[in-house]
Predict the structure.
Amino acid sequence: MPESSALQALDARRSVPALQLTTPGPDHETLLRMLASAVRVPDHGKKVPFRFLSIQGDARHTLGAFLAERSRARDLNASEAQVEKDRLRFSHAPLIVTVITSPSPSPKVPEQEQLMTAGCVCFALLQAAQAMGFGAQWLTAWMAFDPAVHAHLGLAAHEGIAGFIHIGTPKTEVPERERPDPAALLQDWVGG
């Protein structure tokens, strides 16, 4: 059976480190097109347990200044190098799409399943960005889990961050890396 172009796209997927992303990024219409593909994920009960927050332009640097302050507040012994790293985290890629988890109580759809839906959105957005000719990287780090960062970004109390998807134009081609062998990961269950 010949391999489809969809499988070839999946096989070609690779993350481009945020440090290697530069302008241009997607314009608004291109971003909406990528998000239209990214939302086509499994979503039991049609809960839509996610939303998006774009961070671009000067907002990236404003967030970086906040992260530097927060880095110092979280760790009084943080080195200047660590604080500077946090300040610059969002300054490389021209666009960062924050995928926010927004689960709702449901007797049929556990919260964990809703969180996995948001994770699928992150992966689909990586695929969509690459399909549109951009590079992208899915990052989290401490700021994805920090309540003060959540409040600063305007998240509701029940919301969280599945990932920051950094999107831009790759400065260089990213080399392929070794991938796991699926045959080594596969087991047959024969009943018990």
User: Anything to note?
Assistant: The radius of gyration is 18 Å.
